[in-house]
Design brief:
Blueprint lengths: L1 H10 L14 E3 L2 E4 L2 E6 L4 E4 L2 E15 L2 E10 L1 E4 L7 E8 L8 E9 L17 E7 L7 E8 L7 E5 L8 E8 L2 E6 L2 E7 L8 E9 L13 E12 L2 E6 L19 H40 L1
Parallel strand pairs: 3-6
Antiparallel strand pairs: 1-7, 2-3, 4-5, 5-6, 5-17, 7-16, 8-13, 8-17, 9-10, 9-16, 10-11, 11-12, 13-14, 14-15, 17-18
Helix pairs in contact: 1-2
């Protein structure tokens, strides 16, 4: 009975809680990760905005979660996953200033990346591998090597994986400015204004994409050093421009609205939206049913014991 009560508490849908000053341009996921990175639950409570930074905190703690591609289970870590809610774009320059959480040999695997807009509606409920399978990793830290930044594409079911492993002074201790210049058949990656990687191929993603920010635990981050947790990833700002026009901007100042001018909206599937909106409600209903059942069972057992005592 105690195990059931624990699961009920862990399952309470934290996404129904307010996200601390997170701009409505973003959505913080409340789900399990994916089959290739399944050591943590992503929780909105691990995402906040403070002192002009987006903050993603990765913790060692028990949590229960699921997604449509992973069964319900209890995990030993929680972290944060943020993506553009419904804004996506085709070509332009993405720029952000960040300091990544973790450090050498911690097992941290933070990444700022872009995915095809066909994934956007279903992403909050799980990784939809039936979408267009176009990915650009703007800044990814692999194998807990925080002096190198992976800059790479994955397209056509991983048949093309061009990229570079750029050197940078410890990105867990220093802020750096990252840029991606995206045009037809071309990707140019920069760190602090210096070009670090160039990809010129006809298979460079050519459909609208959206930005995602998260911190995974283990897997491609390497073995997890529990003593190094919690980890804190900070983003100072995010900006997307096309030519001289800023089409998306957030400096993570809660006093500013920073709504994007003339956004290019995704066209989400109605099924994806239904799944997204109903999942937290079902989680709440299931949790309440379990809790009330446990209370009723305890009350009945107490009455039975009193009857035997008399």
């Amino acid at each position: 009975m105690r195990k059931l009560f624990l699961i009920a508490l862990l399952w309470l849908p934290w996404s129904t809680r307010a996200q601390t000053d997170l701009n409505s341009q973003w959505i913080a996921f409340n789900r399990a990760s994916g089959p290739d990175s399944n050591l943590q639950c992503f929780r909105p409570k691990n995402v906040s905005v403070s002192s002009g930074n987006l903050i993603i905190t990765t913790k060692s703690e028990l949590a229960a979660c699921s997604s449509f591609d992973l069964s319900f289970a209890v995990y030993h870590y929680t972290s944060g996953f943020v993506s553009m809610r419904n804004f996506n774009f085709l070509y332009g320059t993405v720029e952000f200033r960040a300091k990544f959480g973790g450090g050498v040999n911690t097992g941290a695997w933070p990444v700022v990346w872009m995915a095809d807009a066909s994934c956007q509606a279903s992403d909050p409920t799980g990784t939809d591998y039936s979408c267009n399978e176009q990915e650009i990793d703007i800044a990814e830290i692999l194998h807990s090597d925080f002096t190198h930044v992976n800059q790479q594409i994955h397209v056509a079911k991983f048949s093309h994986n061009d990229g570079c492993n750029a050197y940078a002074t410890d990105v867990s201790k220093n802020f750096h400015i990252y840029q991606l210049l995206w045009s037809a058949g071309s990707l140019v990656f920069k760190i602090d204004g210096a070009t670090t990687c160039t990809i010129n191929q006809n298979y460079v993603p050519n459909a609208p994409m959206y930005l995602k920010i998260d911190a995974f635990v283990g897997k491609f981050g390497g073995p997890v050093n529990n003593g190094s947790l919690p980890w804190t990833t900070l983003l100072d700002y995010v900006k997307v421009t096309q030519g001289s026009s800023v089409i998306f901007e957030d400096d993570f100042n809660p006093k500013d609205t920073n709504q994007p001018p003339n956004p290019t909206l995704a066209t989400p599937s109605s099924i994806g939206l239904k799944i997204f909106w109903r999942w937290p409600l079902w989680g709440l209903v299931i949790s309440l049913v379990i809790v009330f059942a446990l209370i009723a069972f305890s009350f009945r057992a107490a009455r039975s014991n009193r009857g035997k005592g008399s």
